[in-house]
From TrEMBL, chain A:
UniProt xrefs under InterPro entries: CcmF_C, Cyt_c_assembly, Cyt_c_biogenesis, Cyt_c_biogenesis_CcmF
Protein name per Swiss-Prot or TrEMBL: Cytochrome C biogenesis protein
Regions annotated as coiled coil: none
Species assigned in the record: Acetobacter malorum
Domain Cytochrome c assembly protein: 90-296
Gene Ontology terms describing biological process: cytochrome complex assembly
GO terms for MF: heme binding; heme transmembrane transporter activity
Family, similarity comment: Belongs to the CcmF/CycK/Ccl1/NrfE/CcsA family.
UniProtKB/TrEMBL annotation, chain B:
Pfam families reported in the protein's UniProt record: CcmE
Molecular function GO labels: heme binding; metal ion binding
GN (gene name): ccmE
Protein name: Cytochrome c-type biogenesis protein CcmE
Keyword Ubl conjugation: no
NCBIfam families, A to Z: PRK13254.1-1, PRK13254.1-3, PRK13254.1-5
Transmembrane spans: none
Residues that bind heme: H124, Y128
Signal peptide limits: none
Organism, scientific name: Acetobacter malorum
């Protein structure tokens, strides 16, 4: 019933529906024909249903081991566990493009479902833009990377999946990351629709912001999950390699972060409108380029699993149409957007502008560092690479002012502000930061990690103070404070929590620069000392797994003679790929990770020795915990009442929606 | 605050931030860029010891030696591009995909007694060859991608590796593209 042919047919149907979705509502909106405009939601939902059918067909083929499908034969095997048969569907190029299209379809249907309070012309145009982008991707999927292509004769067993991908972290990383990437298609569609209409106002800012925040939350989680995956799977003790593929996700995150901040200014003050539209276009363009960078061979890197230059041409064309077209439309229409409200340099708007400038400078640095090597090899035929030293030297000095101003920003009033009263309210945070600086100088080495730890404390303390000041904690009876807290908009808490999350991440990053490690080759029974812990290799055994055989070590870790944990790092040999993977063993107490890796076996069989890599990673979990806290802050903002029902209607004349937050 | 003064402030802020970014990048470009070198380039003129480079090539089959100094494991292996070979010394765990006869990139610097790697990279894919290594092989005439997959290092480098070790010039390497027939 769910045959690959049905999937192929459904995908083609989705492509046709998407093309119709991309054209008809635009015509309807142009002619102000309500009936044609009302086709948009139906087409979006129809496209989603067709894509879901196609996706289910592929999942069904994977689960039932239908090796007559080329994609399944190349990436699956009978012996693969069921979970990875399902997640393996998007672990390869064809499937991941289908997943991308599916998420785009979900976005279109979500705008159709939740956008009922939008003006019908705007909604029709937004859905149309999403449909046009989807049509391009689905055509790409159908013509150059058909996931349903058959092979004949069908092999008895598949070639199996890269064992590195057989991991729960990576299984769920792509859908979350893709939702983040693709989610920025909705702000993009809003920007294009606004350019077509020639109108951006406070209501537009209010409509576009929830979509941007939602996509940002997913992207934040996706990046963190990817970083966490490389930390515990690759076994190098590192968490971020400044790899082009990682940078490709960081760049839209930086512009996306700028977008969710500048959209606030549009919403509250009707200022920065042209800039916000440009940011929305840029963020999605970078998301698209991110996919392109991964999927084509342009930026070869250790993370790209499915690269194929031939398909790159199609993607390049698609990118040129989407990015070039939207920028051309921007250049043509942006001058018609009227300038907004005035503000002084020292004001909330001013702080948000500074945030945008700094984030975009960071983005420019990361973009240059990522694109410079391929350009050098293309133009001058010189092969170079830029790595951690380059990015550390360029990003940290730009990030430091950003962290300093993060403390002030949320406390400044709109329009015009005095710095001194805000500084007075922040004195506790300043003292805490100074204390943190003093403590860090004793425990840490290097000026930048010490400074960053102090700034992390500053950011967290300022976020907490922002809330306590607003609820007048300790200045009035507790019940009064609680009452005030209940009255505060949730987005205020969202901001504070997200900013505190940034602080937690910085603290983790700063502490991780102090990580210690040791590589030894020892026989069983040896005890090693690292970071105050005694690590004893007590045993090494051979154990069979479902589709591999493993060499498992037993490491007893003691602290002051008391046993802390027994770790089992292992090395797996996968028979079907003639490949080995390293299974790291991590013990965390949330303040530090003990990280053990088992390497090769050497020596004679009578007296074998084993290579061990032992790491002590202080505050490592905080890096990802901080990202999770940021995302929670974003979700809290999303649940704000104003985001849901605040501005159902567009103001007729001068909008009177300026409220002091 | 008029529109003009606000614009002035904006321009000042933008110029300051982007200028700082550009200055930082230029400084980093002069000191933190890592160049890719091939073993024959190293043989011709060794990079200074304080300069980090990426050395790429194929691991010569049968060249991997492991030893221990105290409890520290040390791996030595030869990396070749078919014209010269460089011995790489690495303290640590070689990546899972490290194989003799397959491509590898070693990050480190050139010392008197050979190349000391701080990091050894092999791709997470058994069919992968780093782009730089593929380029180097194509340039040295060892591999033409039109004729199939890259040759196994064991099949073609034995002669030139020894020549390179004796300090002979690499000019006696075959000039014509050798179609891969492994």
């Amino acid at each position: 019933m769910l045959s690959p042919e049905l999937g192929h047919y459904a995908l083609a149907l989705a492509c046709i529906l998407a093309a119709a979705q991309g054209i008809l509502p635009l015509i309807g909106a142009h002619r102000r024909d309500r009936r044609v405009m009302m086709l948009a939601p139906g087409l979006a939902v129809g496209q989603l249903l067709a894509l879901l059918t196609a996706f289910l067909c592929l999942v069904y083929a994977a689960v039932t081991d239908d090796f007559s499908v080329q994609n399944i034969a190349a990436n699956s095997a009978v012996s693969k566990p069921l979970l990875y048969k399902i997640t393996g569907v998007w672990g390869n190029h064809e499937g991941s493009i289908l997943l991308w299209a599916l998420i785009l379809g979900i976005c279109g249907a979500a705008v159709a479902a939740f956008g009922r309070n939008l003006p019908s012309a705007l909604r029709a145009r937004v859905i149309a833009v999403l449909g046009a982008v989807a049509a391009g991707f689905e055509l790409f999927c159908l013509t150059t990377s058909d996931p349903f292509a058959r092979v004949w004769p069908a092999p008895m067993d598949g070639q199996g999946m890269n064992p590195l991908l057989q991991d729960p972290g990576l299984a769920f990383h792509p859908p979350i990351l893709y939702t983040g990437y693709v989610g920025f298609a909705v702000p993009f569609a809003f920007a294009i629709a606004a350019l077509i209409e020639g109108r951006v106002d406070a209501a537009w800012g209010r409509w576009v912001r929830p979509w941007a925040v939602a996509a940002w939350c997913f992207l934040t989680c996706g990046i963190a999950l990817g970083s966490w995956w490389s930390y515990y799977v690759l076994g190098w003790g590192g968490y971020w390699f400044w790899d082009p593929v990682e940078n490709a996700s960081l760049i839209p995150w930086l512009t996306g972060t700028a977008l969710i901040h500048s959209a606030i200014v549009v919403e509250k003050r009707e200022s920065l409108k042209i800039w916000t539209v440009l940011l929305a276009i840029a963020t999605f363009s970078f998301s698209l380029s991110g996919t392109f960078l991964v999927r084509s061979g342009i930026l070869n890197s250790v993370h790209a699993f499915a690269n194929d230059p031939a398909r790159g041409i199609f993607i390049l064309g698609l990118l040129a149409v989407v990015i070039g077209g939207s920028l051309a439309l921007f250049a043509y229409r942006a001058p018609t957007l009227t300038a907004g409200g005035l503000f002084a340099p020292i004001s909330r708007e001013g702080a948000l502008v500074l945030n945008n400038i700094l984030l975009c400078s960071l983005c420019a640095v990361v973009l240059t560092g990522t694109m410079y090597p391929p350009f050098m090899s293309l133009l001058f035929d010189r092969t170079i690479s830029v790595g951690k030293p380059f990015f550390d030297a360029t990003t940290i000095p730009l990030a430091i002012p950003l962290f300093i101003f993060m403390g002030f920003g949320p406390m400044l009033p709109w329009k015009r502000a005095q710095l001194w009263p805000v500084l007075q309210r922040l004195w506790i945070a300043a003292i805490l930061a100074a204390v943190a600086f003093a403590v860090a100088t004793f425990g840490m080495s290097g000026i930048l990690p010490i400074l960053c730890s102090a700034l992390a404390v500053w950011v967290i303390a300022a976020s907490v103070l922002d809330i306590t000041e607003r609820v007048r904690l300790f200045r009035m009876p507790l019940s009064g404070s609680l009452q005030r807290a209940r009255m505060l908009p949730r987005s205020i808490f969202g901001t504070a929590i997200a900013h505190a999350g940034v602080g937690v991440t910085i603290l983790g990053l700063a502490a991780m620069s102090q990580a210690q490690h040791k590589i030894v080759e020892v026989p069983v029974g040896t005890t090693e000392h690292l970071a105050g812990y005694d690590w004893t290799l007590t045993n090494v055994t051979q154990e069979p797994g479902p589709n591999y055989s493993a060499m498992v070590a037993t490491l007893e870790v003691r602290h002051n003679g008391k046993i802390v944990t027994i770790m089992h790092p292992s090395k797996r040999s996968f028979n079907s790929q003639n490949q080995t993977t390293t299974e790291v063993s991590i013990h965390t107490n949330l303040l530090a990770d003990l990280y053990g890796v088992l390497g090769d076996k050497h020596g004679t069989d009578a007296a074998p020795t084993y290579v061990l890599r032992l790491h002590y990673n202080p505050l490592a979990p905080w890096m990802w915990l901080g990202a999770l806290i940021m995302a929670i802050g974003g979700v809290l903002s999303l649940s704000d009442r104003r985001m849901r029902v605040g501005a159902p209607r567009r103001a007729k004349s001068s909008p009177n929606t300026v409220t002091a937050a | 605050m008029t529109r003009k003064t606000r614009r002035l402030w904006l321009v000042i802020a933008c110029v300051a931030c982007l200028g700082a970014a550009a200055a930082l990048m230029l400084k980093a470009f002069s000191s933190d860029i890592v160049f890719f070198v091939t073993p024959s380039q190293v043989a011709a003129s060794a990079p200074p010891a304080d300069r980090t480079v990426r050395l790429g090539g194929m691991v010569v089959a049968g060249s991997v030696k492991r030893e221990k100094r105290g409890e520290t494991p040390i791996a030595r292996f030869d990396v070749t591009d078919g014209q010269a070979a460089v011995t790489v010394r690495y303290e640590g765990i070689l990546p899972d995909l490290f194989r003799e006869g397959q491509s590898v990139v070693a990050v480190g610097s050139m010392h008197k007694d050979g190349f000391v790697a701080s990091e050894v990279l092999a791709k997470h894919d058994e069919t992968y060859m780093p782009k730089e290594v593929a380029e180097a092989l194509k340039k040295s005439g060892k591999w033409d991608p039109r004729f199939g997959p890259p040759p196994s290092a064991a099949s073609w480098n034995s002669m030139t590796v020894q020549d390179a070790k004796k300090g002979l010039p690499a000019s006696n390497a075959p000039a014509a593209p050798a179609p891969a027939g492994n």
